């Protein structure tokens, strides 16, 4: 085989994947095993694995290793309000229930990362507060069956913690933030979603294990929550892999249990929607 050694290794592994010797879902040999097999340095082996990833043939799962890619059925997330719980779609227990309904398990990589930050222009505009105002951010890395699935960060005006002190704690709010805030007298009367499909940034590329060529895009949802007095009390930004997620917006009296989307296909959208609690 001609070309750099890392590419020769990648081509040999691609041949084994194509022939079925390395089956979909099977784990790629470890770096040490590949170094011994091909008499190559660690950097060369990593270059080969990166090449396979660029070809879409393997994916790396956090804490588990690198696996031969297999088809992963998209998860359907309903963005409008859940009528039974009053919670927002795509968040908290509603999100967990929808993942479970697909026969899979939703987890996070760790406890939420909680920080006090200065609001940048986008956050300040969404919350209608002065730029540079102090806000609470709560960030989660969400997994499905161990696969990196979505990134979610919520921003709250700092004074809100005077009424809802758990916002500042770095532990999970198991009942859901919206439900917790309702218990604190801050009722979510509605929310507005803005949806954008775009190229991933470097941090998102790393988290999702995407190719650096941007061939897989991400879907970003900006959700602004309004309280009972029409004040903007939270901004939640959720980023999903666009190829593994689909979204439903229900309007009026429609069934929600079956027939949400066709089995395949679909279109990218950019729109605003609102829901009432």
Describe the structure.
The protein is of the alpha+beta class and 277 residues long. The protein folds into two domains: 64 residues, Winged helix-like DNA-binding domain superfamily/Winged helix DNA-binding domain (Arc Repressor Mutant, subunit A, Orthogonal Bundle); 202 residues, Chorismate lyase, CATH 3.40.1410.10. Helices cover 24% and strands 30% of the residues. The protein has seven helices and twelve strands. The strands form three sheets. Strands 4, 5, 6, 7, 8, 9, 10 and 12 form an eight-stranded antiparallel sheet that branches. Strands 1-2 form a two-stranded antiparallel ribbon. A two-stranded parallel sheet has the order 3-11. A hairpin with a 2-residue loop joins β6 and β7. α1 crosses α3 and α2 packs across α3. The longest helix is centred in the N-terminal third of the chain and has 15 residues. It starts with a helix and ends with a strand.
Key phrases:
Arc Repressor Mutant, subunit A; disordered C terminus; alpha+beta; 277 residues; two-stranded antiparallel ribbon; 7 helices; Chorismate lyase
